[in-house]
């Protein structure tokens, strides 16, 4: 794990197996680029979406990791034009304000930039989104139909028929059983919709995993063993894509799930940097204001407090 804080916007020095640099992909839009140090070009390529914190350490590390796996990887900064408090954004205290149109533009700019690099096999460009960027590969595919594959980890929202009708690439879709943002029924619903619309897709629900379990800059949520298994899963999925497993004349849809017989979404908690569960303070404070103004019942706030007894015992000043 890194000793730098999760909100760091400066990359680590000396990534193994990767050459990294910052690039401008158009009209002041910056991106972080990683190129493999081993193997022979042209390489496969990956466009990587960042989480809600903007382009911070975890995404920078993942760019380098994809490069170490033999992929040219680029991560566009959706907050390139953001004029607000970037430190607050990077810590998750405020949103970045980017829109769907911004995402489409910057992801498309990243795709187009990759096609100009001699190191890239332009027929083998894929995209991955995690958390808040889960749907970004599909948004990119809607404007770049030659995208080879879409990968979504613990994000993406509900099935959007208008968007997914424009998706041509196969999808790898993965959630953790104990993700506090999404009940497992929504994963089942996504699987059902992909089947109904004859979409190529691999859906996985991973036992016990919280939201963000690949993120090693947040020790509370990181799960080393399962994170490595996820990376293996990503590379194996891409191998199947590029080996021609998915074809235009057949639909391949697989589903694998492990979850508790007594699963209860209301008991799923958020993990962050600490060893104990910790709430999203931005959402908690918004709920406090809603309750104080009579726009939300007190029971909702009490339920949140009950989920995080250790945290609020350490931080009683946050209670109403």
List keywords for this structure.
2 domains; alpha/beta; globular; 33% helix; 320 residues
The amount of helix comes to 25-40%
Low-confidence stretches: none
What best-fitting shape do the alpha-carbon axes yield?
A: globular
Radius of gyration: 20 Å
What is the CATH homologous superfamily assignment of the largest domain?
Alpha/Beta hydrolase fold, catalytic domain
Mean pLDDT: 97
CATH architecture of the largest domain: 3-Layer(aba) Sandwich
Count of β-strands: 9
How is this structure best described in words?
- It is a single chain.
- This protein is α/β, with parallel strands linked by helices and 320 residues long.
- It has two domains: 18-257, 3-Layer(aba) Sandwich (Rossmann fold); 279-318, no CATH class.
- It has ten helices and nine strands.
- Strands 1-2-4-3-5-6-7-8-9 form a nine-stranded mixed sheet, with helices on both faces.
- Helix 3 packs across helix 4 and helix 8 runs antiparallel to helix 9 (298-307).
- The longest helix is centred in the C-terminal third of the chain and has 19 residues, at 224-242.
